[in-house]
Amino acid sequence: QVQLVESGGGLVQAGGSLRLSCAVSGSIFAINGMGWYRQAPGKQRELVASFTRGGSTTYAESVKGRFTISRDNPKNTVYLQMKSLKPKDTAVYYCNLRVPPFYDWGQGTQVTVSS
């Protein structure tokens, strides 16, 4: 069974940077087609960055030019480099497949951006 463990969140001032990590265990193929989601209080979970099955990347308009998704296949880890952070980026960030059926969701990692 695939397990997802997110880490790297924290409190940062507006304009700062963070790098999130998603450790994927349980299948060497599980890292394909992965993405990063976020959920702010009172809002639906949204996909912010992802790899397609073909390996290209996609980004939500709100994070284009500021967030970069990458992966380390031997380590089965997906990263999200976030720069120029804004208070509206505050959310719990999760990793999972870009399209369903989803793996069991991890606990997420909290990102808080202060103004």
What does this molecule look like?
Helices cover 0% and strands 50% of the residues. It has 115 residues and is mainly β. A hairpin with a 4-residue loop joins strand 7 (67-72) and strand 8. Strands 2-10-9-4-5-6 form a six-stranded mixed β-sheet, with no helix packed on it. Strands 1-3-8-7 form a four-stranded antiparallel β-sheet, with no helix packed on it.
Using only C-alpha atoms, the radius of gyration works out to 13 Å
Number of strands: 10
- The best one-word shape is globular
Gap between N and C termini: 40 Å
Largest sheet: spatial strand order = 2-10-9-4-5-6
Strand content: over 45%
H/E order of the elements? EEEEEEEEEE
Contiguous low-pLDDT stretches (5 residues minimum) are none
Q: What assembly state would you assign to the polypeptide chains in this entry?
A: single chain
In DSSP terms (H or I, runs of 4 or more residues), the helix count works out at 0
Largest sheet: 6 strands, mixed
Helical amount: under 10%
* Average predicted local confidence, pLDDT: 94
Helix/sheet category: mainly beta
SSE topology:
Layout (H helix, E strand, L loop, with lengths): L2 E5 L2 E4 L4 E8 L8 E6 L6 E6 L5 E3 L7 E6 L4 E6 L8 E7 L11 E6 L1
Question: Briefly, what is this?
Answer:
This protein has strands spanning 3-7, 10-13, 18-25, 34-39, 46-51, 57-59, 67-72, 77-82, 91-97, 109-114. The protein is mainly β and 115 residues long.
Key descriptive features of the protein:
115 residues; mainly beta; six-stranded mixed beta sheet; four-stranded antiparallel beta sheet
